[in-house]
Amino acid sequence: MTEGRTSQPRERHRGPVTLRRDSIPPSTADQRLLDSHLRGEWKTKDAWRALRILSEFVEGFDTLADLPPSVSVFGSARSKPGSPEYQLGEKLGAALARANYAVITGGGPGVMEAANKGATEAGGLSVGLGIELPFEQGLNEWVDLGIDFRYFFARKTMFVKYAQAFVVLPGGFGTLDELFEAVTLVQTKKVTRFPVVLMGISYWQGLVDWLRDTMQADGKIGPEDLGLLYLTDDVDEAVQYIVDAGSEEIEVASARRTAREASA
Fold it and tell me: Which of 75, 178, 184, 191: CA 20 to 30 A from 225?
C-alpha cells in the first residue's frame, strides 16, 4: 500500500491521464467524491462520477482477467533501497515468481518497488495498481502491467479479486488498511480460503500481541480469527504456506464436485 510524501508534485496520474506542472489540480478524485464540503456538487456531478467509477471497474476487470495465479504484496512506500524490508520485498517477489505466481503491488516505490523488482528479475509477471495521490507518485520501473486508478475502493477490489493471497511487509496506515480489509473479508466469509501472511516478526509481533491480549481477551474477536494471520520472517516458509493453502482449496473443491456428481 502507499504511504505518502508531502513534497510538491511534479506529475500526477489520474486514470489513463498524466498531469504535470500547472495542469495538476489542487485535489484528487477521491477527495472530491468524499469531501462533505462539496455536497452542493452532488446533484450535478455525481451521476458522471458514477460512470467514471464504473469505467475503472471495467478497465480493471478487462485488464486483469487473464492473470495467472497471483499474490498481492503490501508494504511501505517509504522503505529505502537496501533497507531490510526492501531486501525482504525483493526476495519475496523472486520467490513468488519462482513458484509461478504473478506479483501484484500498489506500483509505487519502497517495498512495492522491491517486490516488483524481485518478481521481474526472476522472470515472473510484475503488476502495479497505482492510485492518484496529492503528492508525486507514478508506477515504478519494474511494473510490467500497470493500471492507474482514481478511486481507492476500485483499486482495492482488484487487489483482492485477482489474488490468491496477501503478504504484508512493514508499512504504515495504508498497509494496515489493506491488511484489515483482507482479514475482515476472510472473517465474514466474503472470500473463501485466503492466506494473509505478515512478514517481519519484530515489526508485527506487537500488533499480534495486542490483538490477542486486548481484542481477543475482551471478546471482540475469537481465537479462530487471530489464526487468520500467519506470522513469519522466512520467505520460503511464507510462499510454501500460500502454495499449501491453494492445494487445500483445490482438494476441497474437487471433493465437493465429486459429492455433487455422486448425488446427481
Answer: 75
Residue 5: predicted pLDDT: 42
- Among the listed residues 33, 51, 103, the one whose alpha carbon sits nearest the alpha carbon of residue 75: 103
Contact 86, 119 (CB under 8 A): no
CA pseudo-torsion sign 24, 26, 30, 33:
negative
Please report which helix (H) or strand (E) contains residue 37, including its range: none
Q: Rounded to whole angstroms, how far apart are CA atoms 193 and 206?
A: 25
Q: Give the C-alpha separation, 76 to 170, whole Å.
A: 6
Q: How far apart are CA 22 and CA 232, in angstroms?
A: 46
Buried b (16+ CB within 10 A) or exposed e, 203-234: bbeeeeeebeeeeeeeeebeeebeeebbebee
**Whole-angstrom distance, CA of residue 56 vs CA of residue 19:** 18
Orientation of helix 235-263 relative to helix 84-98, angle to 10°: 40
Percent of the chain past pLDDT 90, that is, above it, reads 66
Q: Are 116 and 142 in contact (CB under 8 A)?
A: yes
Cell of residue 181, nine digits: 480489509
Q: What is the DSSP letter of 4?
A: -
* CB atoms closer than 10 angstroms to residue 126: 26
Mean pLDDT of 181-189: 92
Residues forming a β-bridge with 148:
130
112-146: pLDDT as tens digits: 999 999 999 999 999 999 988 766 567 999 999 99
Q: What is the pLDDT of residues 23-78, one digit of tens each?
A: 677 777 666 666 655 555 555 567 778 888 899 999 999 999 999 999 999 999 99
The 10 Å Cβ neighbour count of residue 75 is 34
**Residue found by looking up cell 498531469 in the block:** 19
